[in-house]
Amino acid sequence: MALELRQQLKLTQQLVMTPQLQQAIKLLQLSRVELAETVQQELLENPFLEESLEESANPDKPSTADQRKDDQEAYDKELSNNADWEDYLGDFSSTTKQVSMRESEALEEMSSFEARLAPAPTLDGHLNWQLMLSPLTEEQIRVGEIIIGSISSNGYLHVSSEELAEVAQSDIETVEQVITLIQQFDPIGVAARTPQECLLVQIKALNYDRDPILVDIVTNHLEDLEKRRYKPLARKYKISLEDLREYLDVIQSLDPMPGARFSGGEAHYVSPDVYIYEYEGDFIIVLNEDGLPQLQLSELTEQLPKTSNAKEKDYYQEKMRSASWLIKSLYQRQRTLYKVVESIVKYQKEFFINGVTSLKPLILKDIADDIDMHESTVSRITTNKYISTPHGIFELKFFFNSAIGLDDGSMVGSESVKALIKKLISEENTKKPLSDEKIGEILKEKLQVNIARRTVAKYRTAMNIPSSSKRKVVF
């Protein structure tokens, strides 16, 4: 077979993901915090990018140098006025010069505000602190440290005494003694092996262990209490339901997870990306740009040094293109966000007027077709974004929900059905709670929609609402 060179034309389509395009796509799905960090990082790395100053845009406002000069003159004038009084009073002044000097030195030597903030206590640190204050031997302290290190975040000890004794190279009797001691630490009941043991430790600490019925209920009948089997318990102990209610109140006052308050984590606050305000029957969209710097090209772009070095020229051009592209990408991101929110407000106007019960079914394709963009773009711009509405703060993804067909051929959003189910359960009679089948009948009557019992149960479970048997209050 002979080898030969041949030229031919071929027409193909391919998508080239340039670094600039990848950056623009990444900016779409960043949250406000992540976006601010990305911009700050780019400001540090790119010498041709800077933050624009608003005061420079106002020609009537005095410059920073003039303002600094006026402040200095005012300060000197005030200092000269006070100097005469200090010289006149001398040692009879209420604050002498030595005291003032010591105060200034103390302020300089003080640590920063961040360094003075105390971190949130952990369960291990809280228990170890109490362990060190206890009159124990070195062996018991060593065993206690191993026990505390084996306690889970909710305060339970899931390691056997034999394993702890082997790790600590001690005997089982010493391990049990230290476990009993740690269970008396704050919070009471920590290091328990079972919920029954945890509650019994707390009952003993409160001197309630003198009642054998209470002790027996906690030891053998916690499952019956969970499943609300009150009448068989009342017959077994030959007490009335009111007396059983008193025992139940005591048990409910105990803490079954003593370590939970140390592992709750810090609260995360959400800063909305968009605000929606109602004004004269219409809704105004305002983008939240607080904390996002206004970028502009630096003056260095007009004063580029003339160089014949090819690497330096490539570096300058690359950084200038990067700065210009970032500014355009940020503008495009905000513009896309505004268009998506504007389309959501148009589709979900009933929600902004009446609330969650009026939420209509909506999918990404509806918004994408309305604003002439791809679904992937809408999906990215609605990720990790929050909107402040007259009815609360919601994630943008919240407004996209599936549809449920009504008897008249119209559609209703699944979130509206969930909201109505939650409302019906909150208003029910706790002694006669609504069953899933009854809730389905009410939904058919109010919304004209046929929802099966299992569908109601699925929605109820998704909202972490227990069944009717567990919601029922006997007393």
UniProtKB/TrEMBL annotation:
Compositional bias annotation for Basic and acidic residues: 66-79
Location of the region described as Disordered in the Swiss-Prot/TrEMBL record: 46-80
Pfam families: Sigma54_AID, Sigma54_CBD, Sigma54_DBD
GO molecular function: DNA binding; DNA-binding transcription activator activity; nucleotidyltransferase activity; sigma factor activity
One cellular-component annotation, GO: DNA-directed RNA polymerase complex
Keyword vocabulary terms for this entry: DNA-binding, DNA-directed RNA polymerase, Nucleotidyltransferase, Sigma factor, Transcription, Transcription regulation, Transferase
A single GO BP: DNA-templated transcription initiation
Origin: domain of life: Bacteria
Database matches in InterPro entries: RNA_pol_sigma_54 (IPR000394), RNA_pol_sigma_54_core-bd (IPR007046), RNA_pol_sigma_54_DNA-bd (IPR007634), RpoN_core-bd_sf (IPR038709)
Domain RNA polymerase sigma factor 54 core-binding: 113-299
Domain RNA polymerase sigma factor 54 DNA-binding: 314-472
Family: Belongs to the sigma-54 factor family.
Protein name as catalogued: RNA polymerase factor sigma-54
Species of provenance: Halodesulfovibrio aestuarii
Taxon lineage: Bacteria, Pseudomonadati, Thermodesulfobacteriota, Desulfovibrionia, Desulfovibrionales
